[in-house]
Specification:
The protein is an alpha/beta fold and 338 residues long. 25% of the residues lie in helices and 25% in strands. The radius of gyration is 20 Å and the shape is globular. Bound molecules: zinc ion (ZN). Zinc ion binds next to helix 2.
Length: 338
């Protein structure tokens, strides 16, 4: 089969070959013919070698895949998954037996990891994954949305649940027109929050429904103050890291929650503990999402949309990864595999 594969870390070592072996389908596995795979920073980190553990070597990246079931293992029952089903892959490897898994927190499994990092991923014509990672999607769901559910949508969805965002609260989203940001805006609206988007792109308001937009990153806190009439935001979602830490923390109101699932510009920040406890602010870290949340997202997925900037063929996997950090980027990057 065709696959983008590398033996040593580095973008230049990623080669597209026709002779990769089609993965075996174990008794409890599902072989999927990949349609569209999302391209995310995690894939870039996998290829560039900044993750501690990769398996197997040579390695196929790709953490966010959708496709059509090609074959199922002998223990997979037809009423659950069968050949021809349209599916997405929940990208967490988990054992199902540790204390985290028993609590339904499979993404925190003590013996876990990511599909596409500790297993081969979806930059390939076929991928084989355990049945428990396979979720059916609605018949007519757009493949671009499907390939944006497991990482791009699940991550902010889980984060907003961790932050207990409620109806009528003010949600402030940094990087609102980024991959996860555009989904956070839509989910915030669905919950019934008043969404303030920090972004230079007006489409996040005109097309994605943000109530307010702040385009000047230097004036976020003062504009939030104006919008909320001094109350400040109830929930602030900021995965941009140290560069926006001060303005994002200053934008959290009394009893507010600050939540992040990344730290794009650097992770070391300075915190004033007094302003944390005196306003009873909660700082929340979030990662991935549960399988239950994956199913909840799939149920509302026909109402979600994504803005796609560029679609590449598998042969241009390297260019797709490079484009992630292009200044002119304006939406998602996807790989059209078949
Ligand atoms: Zn576990």
């Amino acid at each position: 089969m065709r696959a983008a594969i590398f033996e040593r870390p580095g973008l230049d070592n990623l080669k597209v070959i026709d002779s990769a072996e089609i993965p075996k389908t174990g008794d409890h596995d599902v072989l999927i013919k990949v349609k569209v795979t999302g391209v995310n920073p995690i894939d870039y980190f996998v290829v560039s070698g900044s993750l501690p553990k990769l398996d197997p070597i040579p390695h196929i990246p790709g953490a966010e895949s959708s496709g059509i079931v090609e074959e199922v293992g002998s223990h997979v029952t037809e009423d659950r998954i069968k050949k021809g089903d349209r599916v997405v892959i929940h990208n967490k490897v988990f054992d199902g037996t540790c204390d985290m898994c028993l609590n339904g927190l499979d993404m925190l499994c003590r013996d876990g990891g990511l599909i596409g990092a500790i297993t081969n991923g979806g930059f390939a014509e076929y991928i084989s994954v355990p049945e428990k990672n396979v979720f059916k999607i609605p018949d007519n769901l757009d493949w671009d949305i499907a390939a944006s559910l497991p990482v791009t949508s699940l991550t902010p969805y889980h984060a907003l649940k961790e932050a207990s965002l409620k109806i009528n609260e003010y949600l402030l989203v940094f990087g609102a027109s980024g991959n996860t940001g555009m989904i956070a805006v839509q989910i915030g609206k669905k919950i019934g929050a008043k969404v303030i988007a920090v972004s230079r792109d007006n489409w996040i308001k005109s097309e994605f429904g943000a109530n307010y937009i702040i385009s000047d990153y230097d004036k976020v806190a003062e504009q939030v103050k104006e919008i909320t009439q001094g109350k400040m935001a109830d929930v602030v979602l900021n995965s941009l890291g140290v560069g926006t830490w001060d303005s994002s923390f200053a934008s959290v109101g009394i009893n507010g929650r600050w939540v992040a699932f990344g730290g794009l510009t650097g992770a070391d920040v300075k915190l004033n503990v007094q302003s944390l406890y005196s306003k009873q602010i909660k700082l929340i870290g979030s990662t991935g999402g549960t399988r239950k949340e994956m199913q909840e997202l799939i149920d509302i997925s026909p109402e979600l949309k994504v803005r796609v900037w560029k679609k590449f063929g598998l042969e241009n996997a390297k260019e797709a990864l490079q484009s992630l950090f292009a200044k002119e980027r304006d939406g998602r990057i996807l790989l059209n595999i078949s």
